[in-house]
């Protein structure tokens, strides 16, 4: 949270001041890259003096500057960062062309720019641990970022926390990025799509649809077909959730026509999942099951589809099939995301020990706090209603009423402005 508050402060300072690049800017960029401490420069100057030079509060003498540059093997003639260097990076990201091959530091004059590129690349691969390695360097260079760099950085910080299931920080950074984009009239469809995903998770369908629709139009304009497909699949999900079946159906058919011919973005299994959700909402459980199973045939270990199939069996009261599926997944060979692990645990308890204290402790200590932290409204309601049911069956009416009160109140994480 402290990093987020500092980011807010830096953004407001950057918006109220001109972009300047004193000699200290290049010194800090190089020093941090070489992992040198301020104390390493003690023969030349004190740490406090170097700090003032780096922050532009002190202009060094020509001889001191030359000595520092020599220690850092820096060229004495340094130009400010080139404007618009992020544009080709964004284009590669939109077209899903950014690959490990593009991570070449020789193309960048400044180390923090290369670090920012790696940060975005690792997150697009879903690798939060590698992305985290770049964060200390970027945090220390943050006061020198241009407004465009800040907007890009905040976008991926939002995505970083989204992947870590921290809804509050994710939304906070997305909002900072969105504020900068609006203020400077920049179109950033990836930001709109990521915000749409957040609002979809927190079940604010109107905002999710609006943002996904805007993002889709921008991606199509830029011929970024992979992300445009993501937008349309998200729209299908939201139309189904809000029971706009007459809108969802033609969009599903349109996507089916696209993806049956070829599937370059590996989204056929996701499409079957959207069909499954559609039929489930219509209470056409046999067709929903067919769609989920078909999705599993195209991608045998699609965790999202397996979880959706559990939801289907639970809603349609097919407990025998739910138990069989849970049993089959006991030795599931691949890594499962934490939200799905908790959902699978939930159904395991529900089928085996529905009124046990261990189930209550799981709901109170793991499932409900995680759903709240993630801003996952659907999971929060599912777990909370089950906890209420346990309290009722155990005649703990005071606790049961408290759960209902919590559910009925407009809690902060559900009441997104």
UniProtKB/TrEMBL annotation:
Residues 46-79 form the HTH cro/C1-type domain. InterPro entries: Cro/C1-type_HTH (IPR001387), Lambda_DNA-bd_dom_sf (IPR010982), TPR-like_helical_dom_sf (IPR011990). This is HTH cro/C1-type domain-containing protein. It comes from Turicibacter faecis. The lineage of its organism: Bacteria, Bacillati, Bacillota, Erysipelotrichia, Erysipelotrichales.
